[in-house]
Amino acid sequence: MVILKLYGAGYTSCTRRVATVLHELKVPFELIEIDVKKGEQKTPAYLEKQPFGKIPYIADDGFILYESRAICRYIAAKHPAAGFIPSEPKAHAICEQMTSAEFASFEPLVALILRETFFKPMMLGTTADLTVVEEPLAILENLAAYDVILGKQRYLAGDVLTLADLFHLPHVPYLAAGGSDIMTRKPNVARWYNELIARPYFLVYEGGVKTTTAY
Ligand SMILES: N[C@@H](CCC(=O)N[C@@H](CS)C(=O)NCC(=O)O)C(=O)O
């Protein structure tokens, strides 16, 4: 069997999003570490595979795919029994509703915070300017809609775990590391979050993503 190759950086959220789904579905994979700091993702050889010059991408028996969420959908589609992409039309639509909320509303806010408090210090050696993160943090602090949704059901798209839940997770530890307690202040969000981080795949956040050939 040809092992799936994940080209990325173990500490980044997009790479961890893909690794989270791979781990959940017990898919063996090899992580090919891309040196983002040195700009390896902008080299001609890399751009041939990922023309946007971003990580991650996968090679699955010669099939190349980029965009972390598209990769997760592909992997989940290959393992339909897990139900990460519901097949019943209404359940499917509700899952899409929440993956859209993640992509359009949650991710852009968290990305602003992440860039200022984690990537800029790491890449440029600068100190975080906390005034930049005040507004996105204030919006996120609310999380009111999430608490309402999670007050009615166990997970974001209903009572079964789906990609909607998994897509939200990779950014979240950075919020906690940045001193924010927004994931644990609202009771229903806290219940959901604590359940998710207790799952074994959450370990990928601690040591970063690593090649995993067996489960
Ligand atoms: N929407 C893309 C975003 C990819 C992305 O922005 N990757 C970041 C790391 S999380 C990256 O490649 N940063 C280095 C760069 O922009 O050169 C995805 O989900 O895969």
Largest sheet features: 4 strands, mixed
Low-confidence blocks of residues: none
| CATH class annotation of the largest domain | Mainly Alpha
Count the DSSP helices: 11
Give a list of the ligands: glutathione
Structural category:
alpha+beta
Q: What Rg, in angstroms, do the CA atoms define?
A: 17 Å
Kindly, what is the distance between the CA atoms of the first and last residues, rounded to a whole number of angstroms?
A: 15 Å
| Element order: H for helix, E for strand | EHEHEEHHHHHHHHH
| Number of DSSP strand runs | 4
Structural domain count: 2
- Name the strands of the widest sheet in spatial order: 2-1-3-4
Domain GST C-terminal: 88-215
Family: Belongs to the GST superfamily.
Protein name: glutathione transferase
Keywords: Transferase
Descriptive notes:
This protein has 215 residues and is α+β, with helices and mostly antiparallel strands. It has two domains: 4-82 and 203-207, Glutaredoxin; 89-200, Glutathione S-transferase Yfyf (Class Pi), Chain A, domain 2 (Up-down Bundle), CATH 1.20.1050.10. It contains eleven helices and four strands, in the order E-H-E-H-E-E-H-H-H-H-H-H-H-H-H. It has helices spanning 13-24, 44-49, 68-78, 89-124, 130-142, 144-152, 163-168, 172-177, 182-185, 187-197, 204-207; strands spanning 4-8, 29-33, 57-60, 63-66. Strands 2-1-3-4 form a four-stranded mixed beta sheet, with helices on one face. Strand 3 and strand 4 (63-66) form a beta hairpin. Helix 6 (144-152) crosses helix 10. The longest helix has 36 residues, at 89-124. The structure holds glutathione. Residues 12-14, 36, 41, 53-55, 67-69 line the site of glutathione (GSH).
